[in-house]
Every structure is written in structure tokens, then in C-alpha cells.
Specification:
Blueprint lengths: L8 H5 L23 H4 L9 E2 L2 H10 L3 E6 L4 H11 L2 H10 L1 E6 L4 H15 L6 E5 L5 E5 L13 H14 L1 H16 L1
Parallel strand pairs: 1-3, 2-3
Antiparallel strand pairs: 2-4, 4-5
Helix pairs in contact: 5-7, 6-8
């Protein structure tokens, strides 16, 4: 069995979660412990997804890593497209797992988080939608937002791998500028 194997929700319901390590083990990520059908759909992704919570937020602060926040819901077409194209892809997972703390949120379970970062996305891009993908500082300042992002570069648009690598480089070399940008977005939203 591999991390990108597809399990149905019924298959997942038969697993004795008490036997799994806290990180989900080799076949799952931390989402295997969640109740949301949307989050469970991502439990076998090779991305080391965290649910929104203290563990993920503390890890981002401790390791001084940006957060890759992905918000969606179970009947969202483009959420499923991006999941199959990118989040099930070992290459995308390797970049996310190496440079970011990846957090997956079900907007129906956490409308507060969705509303906060959708507002940030709309302020940054002029539009919004799902999947909602936002990059945050460890202090939860949003500094990049987009909806669907293709895995590979196409039609003059940077793909997810290109964006993630470029932003990881900027985090290493121009982190203060990124933090200032996030603080500016927060101030704009607070008005």
C-alpha cells in the first residue's frame, strides 16, 4: 500500500485508528483522524497535511516555515481537480513537505477560517473561490493567495511547483519583505 492509494470513506472507517502513529504512518497523513469527509478524502495524499490546530501552528513557528493553507469542501469541482493533479502528486508533495507546513481545512467545518482568508484572497487578487490556497507567515499573516493553481506551468501561468519553489526561495532571502507585505494585508483587512 502506498501513501497515494485511494481509499473510500467506507474503507477508512474500518481502520483501527488507535493503531496508527500520530502522523498517520506510512499510508496516511494526520487527516486520517479527522471526521470531515472532505479532509478524509485527502488522508492518503503524499502531502503531510495537518488539520488546522495548535500542532501545525506551533510547528510553523518552531521551524520558522511558511504555512500552505488549502481550504475547500467535498462537492467542489476544482478542489477535486487540484487534489488529483497536485496533492496526489509525489513531486508536489515533496516541495510542500520540504518548505511548508501544509494545512487542509474544510470550509463547511471551519467557516471562520474560510471567511478570514477568503477576504484576504479577495483583497489581494480581486476575486475568490475554491479551492482557496493561501500562504501565511508562522504568525498567520497572509502574503499570497490564489484559487485553483495548475500543477505545471501553462498558458503563461506559473504552476504550483514553480510558485512553491519561487516563494520558498523568497522566504529564505527576503523574509522581512514577505512579513511586511503580510502585515500590510492584515492592516488593510482590519480597516
Amino acid at each position: 500500500m502506498s501513501r497515494d492509494s485511494h481509499f473510500s470513506l467506507e474503507d477508512l472507517s474500518r481502520i483501527d485508528l488507535r493503531r496508527l502513529p500520530a502522523d498517520g504512518g506510512p499510508d496516511f497523513n494526520r487527516l486520517v483522524f479527522e471526521k470531515s469527509p472532505y479532509l478524509l478524502q485527502h488522508a492518503t495524499n503524499p502531502v503531510d497535511w495537518f488539520p488546522w490546530g495548535d500542532e501545525a501552528l506551533a510547528l510553523a513557528r518552531t521551524k520558522d516555515m511558511p504555512i500552505f493553507l488549502s481550504v475547500g469542501y467535498s462537492t467542489c469541482h476544482w478542489c477535486h481537480v487540484m487534489a488529483g493533479e497536485s496533492f496526489a502528486d509525489p513531486g508536489v508533495a515533496a516541495v510542500l513537505n520540504r518548505h511548508y507546513v501544509p494545512i487542509k481545512v474544510d470550509r463547511e467545518e471551519r467557516p471562520d477560517i474560510d471567511a478570514t482568508y477568503m477576504q484576504a484572497c479577495q483583497a489581494m487578487t480581486g476575486s475568490g473561490g475554491w479551492p482557496l490556497n493561501v500562504l501565511l507567515t508562522p504568525d498567520l499573516l497572509p502574503f499570497f493567495a490564489a484559487t485553483y493553481i495548475p500543477k505545471d506551468d501553462r498558458h503563461g501561468m506559473s504552476g504550483l511547483i514553480t510558485l512553491l519553489e519561487r516563494i520558498a526561495d523568497l522566504w529564505r532571502t527576503e523574509k522581512v519583505r514577505i512579513e511586511d507585505s503580510g502585515a500590510g494585508i492584515r492592516a488593510l483587512l482590519q480597516k
